[in-house]
Structures
1.
Amino acid sequence: MKEAAPKLLILDRDGVINEDRPDFVKSPEEWVPIPGSLEAVSELSRAGYLLVLATNQSAIGRGIIDMAVLNAIHAKLHRAVAELGGHIDAIFFCPHAPDAGCACRKPAPGMVLDIAKRFHVPPADCLMVGDSLRDLQAVAAAGGKPLLVRTGNGARTEAKGDLPAGTQVFDNLAAVAQWLLKPRTHPDAPARDV
Ligand SMILES: [Mg+2]
Ligand SMILES: [Zn+2]
């Protein structure tokens, strides 16, 4: 019998889980969760979702923060999720500056493809939540499904338009969780008898 693939949800960090800052999140103190996002993450985690972050952190490549600071920020994130009974399975980040020409900085699909490989999920089954066009483009380029939230830059991203085909739009991460966990619309739910 074929084993069901794990349910994997990829999340952008800034503007999805925590408030975005145009001047970068430079310390654990500047990492401020968006209301309801940690509860949503924890709910999805307890429901069996693998949750993996894919975040551009060019503040590293620009020399604005170092790895010790990024690790301290992510330690705070992990702790906050754990306090609500949830678990982030991994954090993938691109540390490179925008002009480095790397394969991992979104909108390139490198991180999404790496995550799919690491967690043995076909890229076509990858869902990714983001607030910027480059998040949606990264998952679309990998062959997965883009989910846009209106938090962070999301409302502006929606207003600008030209979203990748098949993009679904939600008010925030809590609304995404509600949609994924609602049995009737769950992607794995069996078709309804007619
Ligand atoms: Mg973002
Ligand atoms: Zn990179």
Note: The chain has a mean pLDDT of 93.
2.
Amino acid sequence: MRTTVGIIGAGPAGLLLARLLHTAGIDSVVLESRDRAYVERRQRAGILEQGTVDVLRAAGAAERLDREGLRHDGIELRFDRRRHRVDFPALTGGRSVTVYAQTEVCKDLIALQLKEGGPLLFEAEALAVEDAATDRPRVRFRHGGTDGAVDVLECDYVVGCDGFWGVARAAVPDGRTFERTYPYGWLGILADVAPSHDELVYARHDRGFALLSMRSPSVSRLYLQVPEGTDAETWSDEEIWAELERRFETDDDWRLERGPITQKSVTPMRSYVHEPMRHGRLFLAGDAAHIVPPTGAKGLNLAVGDVVTLARALTHQRQTGSAELLDAYSATCLRRVWQAERFSYDMTTLLHRAPGATPFDDRLQVARLDRIASSRAAETDLAEAYTGFPIG
Ligand SMILES: Cc1cc2nc3c(=O)[nH]c(=O)nc-3n(C[C@H](O)[C@H](O)[C@H](O)COP(=O)(O)OP(=O)(O)OC[C@H]3O[C@@H](n4cnc5c(N)ncnc54)[C@H](O)[C@@H]3O)c2cc1C
């Protein structure tokens, strides 16, 4: 097989890149190790920055998003049994975010790709990227549909959109990694109950962090900070609801609505950056190059920023013959990545209780939250970062 751009991974990064290249008239092949049902069901992010929504619209992939996405003009910070709303449009000159699950973004992009785009091969696992430093890079892959036979995809460029556990990053020699793990994770549930608040609620509590989010007007997504390595099955549904109620409690009559829990899992927390995001004709995008803890809702949005930058650079190269933007790809993306790393780290340490935290640490966290609640400058800083950093 031969193509211009070989894309490894059909998560949001790989699927959107294929779509952007298709609209620019550049052919690609997407290799995805899992089957379609798995990719479309995998519960992950759900907050789209304004810039991400604009990109999906421009790519013709927002028909359902515009119908079903829930526009949110703010978030609530909850601490010391108090509530403080951060008003995004008022602080950022009109910006907002949209709640639309990653599963739905992927479903929409997969449907478009299969209808209008180039090949998207499921159960096609990339084994290695070869000859990345030459002008003929190749991806060796095993295709489930052909009894596991090993095949080769020859490309002009290869893009590793294969997430944190993929194979592409290993083909970038002499890279540097920057990493921090956190001694806690998130126990996340999906519940068949209308969200108890119409915007996300980020709660700091002496027992740990909690987040109220949503997937639709009838499905709630809720999270609890739990110790690192927790097995979700050790928490009964009753224990989960009781703990959520404690962490969200306020002095007014706000109540958390309970409902049947349909899914529960634990997500570890990690900050990770691999530099550079390029080696020869191999480019890394999304989680293949960087991970943020989910507190800032940045993972999916960073992946979108990377592939928009890369699609522009590949189009520029095609139209002008200049590799200038491709050469700048890694540095351009990393500037935005590090801003997201900073914000995600700040939000995480602002709201989570670290093991061994002292009363002094507790008071400092509350003072930081108080500062956001009482200073327009501090609140604007949060609102600008949450609604998104410019792409490119
Ligand atoms: C459990 C979990 C919960 C999360 N929750 C949030 C959240 O609440 N908010 C937030 O902003 N972000 C969240 N994230 C992060 C967000 O989902 C990611 O940043 C986003 O998925 C990145 O997209 P991606 O396309 O780069 O990578 P991925 O979505 O990981 O996609 C990579 C794709 O590559 C495929 N692949 C891997 N190896 C190979 C191979 N060898 N060959 C072929 N295909 C391969 C994988 O199957 C996958 O489909 C979460 C992540 C996880 C893991």
Note: Residues 215 and 360 are 36 Å apart (CA to CA).
